[in-house]
Amino acid sequence: MNPYHHALSSAQKFGGIVDDYLPIHQWFDESKAFFPDFRHRALRHHAEGIFLCERLFGATITNSDDREISTRFIGEQHVKEDLGRIPTVQDWLSCLAPERWMLTAGGARENKKSTDRDKDRSVGPVSSSLLQGYKHDNTSG
Q: What residue stretches are annotated with the DUF6915 domain (predicted)?
């Protein structure tokens, strides 16, 4: 579903006109610009994305019928229309296959020649044994 049709659905559900809702639905689907398949949804189509939407657009919008509508309700509607439910960030990220480069500290790799970096990119998926004992460090990205 594209942002316009989501906005049309919002107008039918909450009143007002398409333009009342279009900016919110465009925000949810912005990531299509740089990742144009269903996986773009992993960036904002989840509970945390709905919280972020509320933070960016405010707790409510006032539509053209002068009704206050919860941005949370609009976000939930968008995600449910696309996915049938509201997943968590964990639901999306748990489907991500870990790669060796994801576990490597940035500083050690910065001094490598570009040909070495290119070779490392072709390593493929990380084995589960590599992940065992990996401890997340909250001080790094």
A: 1-102
One DSSP character per residue, 37-77 reads SGGGGGGTSSHHHHHHHHHHH-SEEE-TTS-EEEHHHHHHH
What is the span of the domain harbouring residue 119?
A: 100-131
- pLDDT higher than 80, residue 56: yes
Can you give the pLDDT at residue 139? 39
CA gap 79, 44 in Å, rounded: 9
Domain check: are 14 and 54 in the same one?
A: yes
Residues 4-15 have pLDDT tens digits of 999 999 999 999
